[in-house]
């Protein structure tokens, strides 16, 4: 079934409690759970297990996508830093011994500089294609959330939209990505 039969020690947090709380937040899941509790037939228990397996698979896939996007974001930052020849230093110091230009002045984007998108750091062709097929708003929300590490609330405040709209859009984008990626890629 969903939880182990082990009883946690009094005063201790059961490791599956947060998972169960997340599962039971959904009204449909709560109804299926209550039916299985009240009427523990084979069919009701099977419905409960099936609903929980779908829920848990979605969590695993979301975690996989989060970790993958996070990895590619870090990789992108490293590649961009190497490509642009950046180094950590005091920005007001001259860029070189023979140059009078400060490093701070060199960081300002110029028209002749190439700007790279975060999508160029993704090496998995299926993931890249799936992301490129998303609407621009969803790509923007994913970038702000996973690359710039903004919360849904911060994104909503920045773009002057509701937090719910941001959350729904990000969840929709993740569902689209999950549906396109091969099933074997999920953990």
Summarize the structure.
The chain contains eight helices and no strands. It has helices at residues 17-25, 27-38, 42-84, 103-107, 125-132, 136-147, 152-159, 163-180. The chain is elongated.
| Unreliable spans | none
Q: How many DSSP helices?
A: 8
Percent strand = under 5%
Given helix and strand content, the structural type is: mainly alpha
Helicity level, as a percent range? 55-70%
Order of helices and strands: HHHHHHHH
Describe this protein's structure:
The model has no long low-confidence stretch (mean pLDDT 78). The chain is mainly α and 187 residues long.
List keywords for this structure.
187 residues, mainly alpha, 0% strand, elongated
Outline the secondary-structure elements.
Blueprint: H1 17-25, H2 27-38, H3 42-84, H4 103-107, H5 125-132, H6 136-147, H7 152-159, H8 163-180
Helix pairs in contact: 2-3, 5-8, 6-8, 7-8
């Amino acid at each position: 079934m969903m939880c182990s039969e082990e009883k946690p020690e009094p005063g201790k947090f059961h490791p599956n409690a947060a998972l169960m709380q997340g599962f039971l937040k959904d009204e449909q899941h709560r109804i299926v759970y209550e039916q299985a509790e009240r009427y523990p037939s084979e069919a009701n228990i099977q419905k409960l297990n099936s609903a929980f397996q779908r829920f848990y698979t979605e969590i695993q896939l979301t975690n996989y996508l989060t970790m993958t996007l996070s990895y590619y974001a870090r990789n992108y930052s490293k590649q961009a830093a190497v490509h642009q020849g950046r180094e950590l230093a005091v920005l007001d110091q001259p860029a070189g011994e023979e140059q009078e230009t400060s490093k701070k002045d060199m960081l300002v984007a110029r028209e002749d500089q190439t700007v790279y998108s975060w999508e160029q750091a993704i090496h998995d062709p299926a993931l890249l294609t799936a992301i490129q097929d998303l609407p621009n708003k969803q790509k923007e929300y994913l970038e702000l959330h996973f690359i710039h590490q903004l919360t849904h609330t911060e994104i909503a405040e920045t773009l002057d939209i509701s937090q719910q709209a941001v959350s729904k859009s990000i969840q929709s984008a993740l569902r689209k990505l999950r549906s396109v990626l091969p099933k074997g890629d999920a953990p």
